[in-house]
Specification:
- By secondary structure, this protein is mainly beta.
- It has one domain (1-289).
- The protein contains 1 helix and 12 strands, in the order H-E-E-E-E-E-E-E-E-E-E-E-E.
- The chain has one helix at 7-15; strands at residues 19-23, 27-30, 38-43, 69-74, 83-87, 111-113, 117-119, 138-139, 144-149, 192-194, 197-199, 283-288.
- The protein has a 5-stranded antiparallel β-sheet with strand order 1-12-3-4-9, covered by helices on one side.
- A hairpin with a 3-residue loop joins strand 6 and strand 7.
- It starts with 6 loop residues before the first helix and ends with a strand.
Length: 289
């Protein structure tokens, strides 16, 4: 049974009669007055991949950066505020391609559990440069960190192959970038790995009008309140193929949920540019007993 970044730990809480609450969007967490300990998992949003340019075969989109992740425990819940604001960072929305210049992929949002835990999102792409990795989480001294880590950066377009960065700490992986060579396929997104759990990056689209594939979602078996959850974050999305002749290139695809970076769009020798892939949304899960 897979229950979180540290599966045995969170599984033991549930087996001992504990509870969990999942936040897919922002909201409030009411701290149970009888809680003996509280465990929080937080995942930042992944940034989007950049769109590929139209009428410019050497201007594909860069890959989006993966969001950070954190797992931490509070052994003295009475020290926490009675009501805690939970902010779930959204993944960046992939820009739409145009017949002009390419557009950068927006950053992913930071995820926060009040002022106690913050998991940054992946940074925006910038021209040929992939989105920066979501930086290491910040965790209040009221909590004890169990697992935490930065995401992985998205791929730069001037690398070949332009594969997104991978993680081994369960954080979000980076998206693949489109290749500057008009005859090239898009590159794959990176992988997210946490021990025995892994999510594989989406493969890039073949050259021409072929979109990349989505990054795999994290090892999330169910979103119900009583079942298992994540062992790793989402993988990076694959980039679209570039178009060396007239016509449209391939779109970048989405990063995996949660926290994966989106893939960059290919670039077209003529015609309209193509879209960058969305970043994976963030997530917060709270366990208590």
């Amino acid at each position: 049974m897979n229950n979180g970044l540290m599966p045995g730990f969170t599984e033991a809480i549930l087996k001992a009669g504990g509870s969990q609450k999942i936040f897919l969007s922002s909201g409030l967490f009411n701290v149970p007055t009888d809680a003996k300990l509280i465990v929080v998992e937080a995942y930042g949003g992944g940034s989007a991949g950049g769109s590929g340019a139209g009428n410019a075969v050497n201007s594909p989109g860069a890959g989006g950066g993966g969001g950070a992740c954190a797992l931490a425990v509070c052994l003295a819940p009475s020290r926490l505020a009675s009501v805690i604001q939970v902010v779930v960072g959204a993944g960046g929305t992939g820009p739409t391609g145009t017949s002009g210049a390419r557009s950068n992929g927006p950053a992913g949002g930071a995820t926060a559990f009040g002022s106690y835990i913050s998991a940054p999102g992946g940074g925006a792409t910038s021209g040929d440069t992939g989105g920066t990795a979501g930086s290491a989480p910040t965790i209040s001294s009221i909590f004890t960190s169990i697992v935490s880590g930065a995401g992985a950066a998205g791929a730069d377009t001037n690398n070949s192959p332009a594969v997104g960065g991978s993680t081994t700490n369960g954080a979000g992986a980076g998206g693949g970038a489109g290749e500057r060579d008009g005859n090239a396929a898009g590159s794959a997104g990176g992988n997210s790995v946490n021990g025995a759990y892994s999510a594989t990056g989406g493969s890039g689209g073949a050259f021409g009008n072929n979109s990349g594939n989505a990054g795999a979602d994290g090892t999330f078996l169910s979103l119900s309140e009583s079942s298992s959850g994540i062992g790793c974050s989402g993988a990076g999305g694959g980039a679209g193929g570039s178009q060396p002749v007239s016509g449209t290139a391939g779109n970048g695809n989405r990063g995996g949920f949660p926290s994966g970076g989106g893939g960059g769009g290919g670039s077209s020798a003529s015609g309209t540019g193509v879209n960058g892939g969305n970043g994976g949304n963030g997530l917060v899960r709270v366990f208590w007993i």
